[in-house]
Design goal:
Elements (H helix, E strand, L loop, with lengths): L3 H17 L6 H11 L5 H7 L17 E3 L3 H11 L3 E6 L8 E6 L2 E6 L10 E5 L3 H10 L9 E4 L2 E7 L5 E6 L1
Helix pairs in contact: 1-2, 2-3
Keywords: Antibiotic resistance
Protein name: Glyoxalase superfamily protein
Length: 176
Amino acid sequence: MFSVEQAKQMAAKLKASLELREHKISYSAALEMVSHQLGFRDWNTAAAMLRPQPPESQIQFSKPIPILRIFDIRKAQEFYLEFLSFHVEFEHRFEPHLPLYMGIVRDGLQLHLSEHHGDASPGATIFIPMKNIELLRNELHDKHYGYGRPEIFKQDWGDVMEVHDPFGNRLRFCQS
């Protein structure tokens, strides 16, 4: 989604571009055109609906990416790629035969898996808010994984399904 500042910049560029072609329009007319291009009725509606541009001096965080410790690449691939249906985003080794650092992703959830000694401790728990937890449970059951058939438990804060990887880490999926 565009910010208000980005839409204003688009309007200024549109106005300047049209002026180069000898089509003079006002800045407000350019704002109206941009708002229509973005799917809004008019500039006032667009300005109310578009997100404000945060000040550059304001601290901003992005979504965290948990790092989980692994010890056996084959077991990690069987669990995360085959059972949980993640996809490899990247793999990194400083040299052949050195520990693996791997990024995996599935439906907006990113995890990093590391064989490096200092990156993480085994036995971590990751809380993963989600939707359609029953679909995930059914998908996992259909795979007939020999080391786990997770179930959903009702808690005060939502439906929870915990999955344990081969390295002692827990992925706690929760639908509130």
